[in-house]
Design goal:
With 154 residues, this protein is mainly α. It has a single domain, classed as Growth Hormone, Chain: A (Up-down Bundle), CATH 1.20.1250.20. The chain is built from five helices and no strands. Helix 2 packs antiparallel against helix 3. The longest helix has 31 residues. The chain is elongated, with a radius of gyration of 17 Å. The model has no long low-confidence stretch (mean pLDDT 92).
């Protein structure tokens, strides 16, 4: 259900990025992804320690849906940013490379998450993802949003 929501909302991310700017939308979405990944990690850890883990299902579920929605919006904003940063000749290869990396992520993320579930520490995977999202947040700000940015792409 999560990847379906992410794929379904992707065009909305592009549309909003056309209105607000791809880097701004990516920045906002990155913050949402960090917060939701940390929230999911918190509720999963709490559920593992609880004699009644079902009480954590709804917050876990809602935050996971928010995380998948944010990834879809971020996907659309990233592709909009690429189209703005690169010239027409470079944009196609950059989009292709980005798609390839995204396809690898679709393998890597469930694999890491599954291994951590088997180890009964799925929150560690989510902490790692939150750190990755934070690095992306800083890189996005540095290259596209800060004063004197390499490419001004609001």
């Amino acid at each position: 259900m999560g990847p379906f929501i992410g794929a379904l909302i992707r065009p909305v991310g592009g549309w909003v990025s056309d209105k607000m700017g791809g880097a701004k939308v990516t920045q906002i979405v990155s913050i949402i992804m960090i917060a939701s990944a940390l929230g999911v990690a918190y509720f999963m850890a709490a559920a593992y320690r609880s004699p009644t883990p079902e009480q954590y299902f709804w917050p876990f579920f809602v935050l996971f849906i928010v995380l998948f929605t944010a990834t879809g919006l971020g996907n659309g904003s990233t592709f909009r940013t690429i189209a703005m940063v690169f010239n027409a000749e470079q944009a196609g290869p950059a989009l292709g490379w980005t798609s390839a990396v995204a396809a690898y992520g679709a393998f890597f993320i469930p694999k890491v998450f599954g291994e951590q579930i088997n180890a009964t520490t799925p929150e560690y995977a989510l902490y790692g993802f939150a750190i990755f999202y934070a690095v992306c947040l800083v890189l996005n700000w540095w290259f596209y949003l800060r004063p004197n940015a390499y490419v001004k792409n609001p």
